[in-house]
Specification:
heterodimer; A: 261 residues; 0% strand; elongated; B: 310 residues; alpha/beta; Rossmann fold; 2 domains; 27% strand
Chain lengths: 261, 310
């Protein structure tokens, strides 16, 4: 006699949230998937082909090859963050967060579902940007496990950051302040388009306080085998931040901050 | 017997300092059709919000079918279905998807979730709209969607906060029939409503909440029996210039052909007609000024307001 194996209720709940999140960003693909493809193509045409050809090699690589890892990670960071902050804030705004709060789901499943949704979008966009890159450069991977670990962990970290932003957001303006005034400057100053060796010693020291520098360089090492910093320290930093933000997000959900009265 | 809902000493004070609930006790037996009534701001929605895990309580205990909402929250939440006052679904999702997702949150696998969604969309006459985005539904359909969503995991206790607000008479009656059938099939139902005739015709037991406190709790019949008489509006065949003086009755002339009479508790209506005939007044038709529950409700609020001044 055969018996259908029924999944654990928590697993079903998790899969339901994740599937809903993936359907959401796929349904609005012209807003979520298409723009990074176009932006990346423009970066390659302008910075890679037109300007990059006059810059000359950086760390032994052509400029266009040098910026590929940073552009991929920039897309992963901004989209994993954007997915969770906009989706969870909308859930609060339209009050269908109540569908989850009344259900027999623990906070960690709700957090895992939304973060996984953000990671899924970050990875999909990362793949799209990689495919666009392949149209302009010959891609190479120096260390596959490091590439996978950095992309995956960075997506988790910024999806969690997006979740915390959404918890505190009270208006739609609040979900764009951090990406505009914090994330974008840190990414651009995190060595996406240059090596910190090009900076004066003072600014090299300042750059070491920018966490994006570690992530971009870790991926650059994974793809090209060159880096301004030690890759292991990047992984430690990402994992520590995931732990801190994860604990904060769970505490906020458990206390109902911004979602319960 | 374990009650469907047991609430003890439930208090809620908001961060603003407003005390919404001052320590309420409620006991709803399994199979009850229970009305929770009160004026705006009385604390009904706060109480429901706490039972639904949407509002954090300040003190007290809530148990659903014996499962404590704090210690055994998973079992407690699994037995409750909530229909809130405000629409709270994703308006961009198709109707069927809203139900399937909700079932998923309760740990129901997709195949069975689809069957459950079909069952309740058909019962609530929304099956034809299953692929429609929720934002394109009419107000009555949105109300029915919320009922279907609350039932998709087969809760034993269904709590409805103003379920028929803003729906037309025909749909309201259809919803009443649906809820009565559901109650006969064994679901315990708690209802808040501003339509007191709705509570009177549906509910067997009642609690009245006023300024965060329960001021009355018991059987609907017992409550109605305690009302201090009825207020009748009589249409007269002839005209009057002044209200007649009838012993034992208080009369007020609304216009020359309309007379309002307060009938004291225990006084038969024949006595009123006899008194009217004695002074030559003929009655064309008669109706109650207030619904009986409305009268009892207003009386309770008045009594409790007086108590506060004392």
């Amino acid at each position: 006699m055969s018996m259908n194996k029924v999944a654990h209720p928590y697993l079903i709940g998790y899969r339901t949230i994740l599937a809903k999140e993936v359907r959401r960003f796929m349904r609005i693909w012209p807003q979520t998937i298409l723009p990074p493809a176009i932006t990346t193509a423009l970066y390659f045409v302008i910075f890679g082909k037109l300007i990059g050809s006059r810059i000359g090699p950086v760390a032994g690589f052509g400029y266009i090859d040098y910026i590929v890892p940073g552009l991929i990670l920039m897309a992963v960071i901004s989209h994993s963050y954007a997915n969770v902050v906009s989706s969870f804030y909308s859930t609060k705004f339209q009050r269908h967060i109540e569908e989850l709060l009344i259900a027999p789901l623990p906070s960690w499943i709700i957090l895992a579902g939304y973060v996984s949704g953000g990671v899924a979008r970050g990875l999909v966009v990362g793949v799209v940007v990689t495919l666009v890159s392949a149209c302009f450069v010959e891609l190479s991977v120096f260390h596959w496990p490091l590439v996978i670990a950095v992309v995956f962990l960075t997506a988790i970290l910024f999806a969690m950051a997006g979740f915390i932003n959404a918890v505190f957001a009270r208006t739609f303006d609040d979900i764009s302040i951090i990406p505009t005034f914090v994330l974008t400057p840190l990414i651009y100053l995190g060595g996406v388009f240059y090596s910190v060796d090009m900076l004066p010693p003072f600014w090299q020291g300042v750059s070491l306080f920018n966490p994006m520098l570690y992530m971009v360089n870790a991926l650059r090492y994974g793809m090209l085998g060159v880096s301004d910093i030690e890759s292991s320290s990047a992984l430690v930093i990402i994992i520590v931040f995931i732990g801190l933000l994860g604990a904060a997000a769970l505490w906020l959900l458990h206390k109902g901050v911004g979602i319960k009265s | 017997m374990i009650p469907a809902l047991a609430v003890e000493g439930l208090k809620k004070t908001y961060a603003t300092g407003v005390e919404a609930l001052g320590g309420i006790d409620l006991r709803v037996e399994e199979g009850d059709f229970y009305a929770l009534l009160g004026p705006n701001g009385a604390g009904k929605s706060t109480a429901i919000g706490i039972i639904a895990s949407l509002v954090t309580k300040s003190a007290g205990r809530v148990a659903v079918f014996g499962h404590d909402l704090d210690d055994d929250w998973r079992a407690a939440r699994s037995t409750i279905g909530i229909v809130p006052q405000e629409f709270n679904f994703n308006v961009f999702e198709p109707v069927e998807e809203i139900l399937i997702n909700q079932a998923g949150y309760y740990g129901i696998a997709r195949e069975r979730a689809c069957q459950q969604a079909e069952k309740y969309l058909r019962e609530l006459e929304l099956w034809d709209k299953r692929r429609t985005q929720a934002r394109d539904l009419s107000g009555g359909m949105k109300r029915r969607l919320m009922i279907a969503r609350a039932l998709v995991h087969e809760p034993r206790l269904l709590i409805l906060d103003e379920p028929t607000a803003g729906v037309d008479l025909e749909i309201r009656h259809a919803m009443w029939e649906f809820l009565q059938r559901r109650n006969r099939e064994g679901t315990t139902i708690i209802l808040t409503t501003h339509y007191l005739e709705e509570a009177e015709s549906l509910c067997r037991r009642i609690a009245v909440i006023h300024q965060g406190r329960i001021v009355e709790q018991g059987g609907m019949r017992e409550l109605l029996a305690r009302t201090h008489g009825e207020h009748l509006v009589l249409s007269l065949t002839g005209t009057l210039e002044v209200a007649p003086v009838l012993k034992g009755f208080r009369c007020e002339l609304v216009d020359p052909v309309t007379l309002e009479v307060q009938l004291p508790t225990g006084m038969g209506i024949n006595a009123l007609f006899a008194a009217l005939s004695a002074v030559g007044i003929e009655v064309l038709s008669m109706r109650n000024k207030h619904n009986r529950l409305e009268q009892a409700f207003l009386q309770l609020l008045r009594e409790n307001s007086v108590d506060e001044h004392e």
